[in-house]
Q: What sequence folds into this?
């Protein structure tokens, strides 16, 4: 019998590789995107296209009305510029959306319980730990416990990439033939990846370190 799994699915490299990994293992996967008023809502279009290609159910939770309640981030407040440069820079902290993963995981848990799913999966990885508190092992451990206390149905929270680097994820995705050309990373949410924000730079580095060809068209490069 297949495991029924709800995946938090942004349409980025990490969650798409996780999606393909879950499908490769023979699971019954349901993808959940969340519109929380993020500047880069372009990612939801990517997620929809990828889910359609993979032939799996995809739903979007519309939480745009909470954007003004969590507007201290450059991702939810268009008056705050998205910083450019490497993720290790202190300036990247302005991209932290207050309590984002707890909000997203709460919605995912509700859907998982409704579906009588056995598991929720999200693609937090080791590279996120330094910047984002809601990707750290302590947060994950607390959410594992909270989700299991939320309902009589015991739903597992799975984070299989929590010790992976971005390059590790890229290597795995390449092996699984993930359509990286369809994925979206850029925080600026323009028509093309800007190539300058932290997540674009991290994306470029991942392909370079993994020795995998980067199919991304960046706005700051001549074609």
A:
């Amino acid at each position: 019998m297949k495991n029924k799994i709800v995946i938090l699915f942004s349409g980025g490299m990490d969650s798409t590789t996780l999606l393909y990994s879950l499908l490769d293992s023979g699971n019954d996967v349901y993808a959940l995107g969340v519109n929380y008023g993020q500047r880069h809502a372009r990612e939801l279009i990517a997620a929809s296209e990828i889910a359609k290609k993979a032939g799996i159910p995809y739903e979007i939770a519309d939480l745009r009305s909470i954007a003004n309640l969590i507007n201290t981030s450059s991702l939810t407040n268009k008056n705050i510029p998205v910083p450019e440069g490497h993720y290790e820079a202190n300036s990247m902290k302005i991209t932290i959306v207050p309590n984002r993963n707890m909000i997203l995981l709460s919605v995912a848990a509700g859907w998982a319980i409704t579906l009588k799913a056995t598991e929720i999966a999200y693609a937090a990885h080791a590279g996120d730990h330094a910047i984002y508190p809601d990707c750290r092992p302590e947060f994950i451990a607390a959410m594992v416990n909270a989700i299991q206390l939320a309902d009589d149905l015991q739903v597992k929270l799975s984070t299989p990439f929590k010790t992976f680097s971005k390059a590790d994820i890229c290597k795995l995705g390449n092996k699984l033939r993930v359509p990286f050309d369809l994925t979206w990373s850029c925080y600026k949410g323009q028509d093309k990846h800007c190539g300058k924000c932290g997540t674009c730079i991290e994306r470029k580095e991942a392909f370079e370190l993994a020795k995998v060809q980067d199919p991304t068209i960046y706005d700051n490069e001549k074609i």
About this structure: Residues 7 and 94 are 26 Å apart (CA to CA).
